[in-house]
Amino acid sequence: MKGLIYFSLLVSSFAVFSADSDFAWHGYASQGITQSNSSSFITDSDAVTGELTEIGINGLYRLSENLSIAGQINYLDGGNRFEQGARLDYLFVDWKLPDLGGGWQAHIHAGRFKNRHWLYSVTRDVPQTRYTAVLPQSVYFDGFRDIALGSNGILTSFTHYGQHNIWELNWSYGRSNINSSQRDFLLGEEANGEAKQDFVHQASVFWQPASMAWKVGVSWLNSDFSYTPSQQDNRLAGEANVERFMLSAQYFSEHWEVSMELLSEAQHSRGLFAPDFNDKRRGDGGFIQFRYLFNSQFSGLIGYDTYVNDVNDRDGKRLEQLSNGAVPAYFGYQDTTTLGLRWDIAPKWRLQGEYHWVEGATRVVSLLDRNVAEQADKNWQMWSLQLMYWW
Amino acid sequence: MKTPSIRPLLESLSHISYRTFLIVMSLFATPSFSYADDLKVMAHESVSISQLNRSELRQIFTGHRQHWQNGKKITVFVLQDNDELHKQFCRDILQMFPYQLSRLWDQLTYSGQGVTPVRVSSYDALIEALESTEGAIGYGDKNDIVKLRRIEVEEK
Fold first, then answer.
1. Cα-flanking dihedrals φ and ψ of residue A52, to 5°?
2. Which of A103, A134, A137, A144 is an S-S bond match for A363, by CB 3.0 to 4.6 Å?
3. What is the pTM of this model?
4. Which of residues 199-218 of A touch B (CB under 8 A)?
């Protein structure tokens, strides 16, 4: 599949975009080197690796003034962060409703669509649209990357362009497939059955002044999961519900920009591990990132990200007690400080580097992993250097 | 003995605070730019309108409006991000920052939400594209243009 995508990229690089055409083709290709040190978050045994590849190609075909079809396939390799391989990123029909009056426009997407409810979620796989290769794990947790990226279903988006304000209202309903690595993260490697996302229901509201210098929004997510065990399984039938509230904000200035998101996430699990298992917990966290543009070629970034797995056990000591010491307390939280540098070498070419200092490991590996304590030290680091090209 | 007055100190402090306040507020201020009189929004002669307000112009250049009122497709042409004329257009006419605009285009392009502007590599190529593409819009120096329609931007 990787070869097929490379071939598609080669073919598409010869495609000439015509302004009169109803087709538009774009893509991106990036390769980097990366390492996680004292943690298996990206690489095992502190190895430096080239497992930082992101390649994608997309097309948009306009059927009529109000109707178009859009799709993107990509190949991703992020080391241990998520499952390596090719994916259908999105493929949907975009129907632009006739003008609603009062400055309102509306679009309906049907098919596999991208998550438009968080600041970076809509182009999370696209390297040149991100500040860093590894996004803040509080919000953009790589363990659930494929579930959070988008859904198969329907999305509606209403936008109001006024003289002084821009409002955007998004609502979506759908589901995603859960692959085996995500199932293992949720239920441990002993699970052999089928985990399913029954639905994910999301809504968000964003406000911007007409200058678009600010962007402020709130979002809500509610999702149900169910598990059907196989005939030989150490897990039981059960279900889980996740509900997330988020606050997002961005500010653009001439020489600097800042973005932040805060989240509160409640999880309720029943069954799965024992017939009477009934667990409720709430995690919270968020990030802030500040980027300074030294000139049109160079910029630097500093960021801080924090997440606690259970607000009633912020230092993780209860987690350690309940597991009889098998899960060290520092797996109950994760705090990350990030420094990054970006160099726009030429139009459509960029080199981006970053270094993260991390305390805690709640986003490194499933807490149900048999050897969880061996997967990360309390303090660990990761870095990457990524070269990217897009068209 | 006359008690030393602390007034000069307070005035000095208030001056510093006021200056700090101004600096901090200027960081968050909405950008305000002076017009470069010769740089104008230009469109293909088939475009029938001659005036847009800034909100409509931003919708077009951010890819959120893709058809003229008569249903004809809008094709936006711009220079590369690091071109000084493009920077001037973003700052003076759109009143946005070039990197902000690029970010919006990338989000549209790589999530299937729309078609983004066609970036051309030279000013001559920009004018040629605007002259030869029906429904095209871009920008140029008003003194250079004979075949294009000039579009005025309303302040309101």
1. -145, 80
2. A137
3. 0.85
4. 209-213
Residues A106-126 have pLDDT tens digits of 999 999 999 999 999 998 889
Detail the DSSP E strand segments found in A176-277: 194-209, 214-228, 238-252, 256-271
Arithmetic mean of pLDDT, A18-47: 89
Whole-number Å distance between alpha carbons of B113 and A128: 17
Cα–Cα dist A94/A107, whole Å: 7
- Strands A104-114, A85-96: pairing is antiparallel
CB-based contact A54:A125 (threshold 8 Å): yes
The interface pTM score, or ipTM, of the predicted complex is 0.85
Residue A71 DSSP label: E
| Cα angle B65, A175, A307; round to 5 | 90
What would the pLDDT profile of B41-71 be if each residue is shown by its tens digit? 999 999 988 899 888 999 999 988 888 988 8
Report yes or no: B102 at the A interface, CB cutoff 8 Å.
Answer: no
Expressed in percent and rounded to 5, the helix, strand and coil fractions of chain B are 40, 20, 40
Quote the tokens at residue B91.
């700052």
Report how far residue A385's alpha carbon sits from residue A342's, in angstroms, rounded to the nearest whole number.
10
Strands B75-79 and B118-120: parallel
The pLDDT, as a whole number, for residue B1 is 40
| Closest partner CB to B112 (pick from A19, A71, A253) | A71
Q: Identify the residue whose tokens are 């809500």.
A: A220
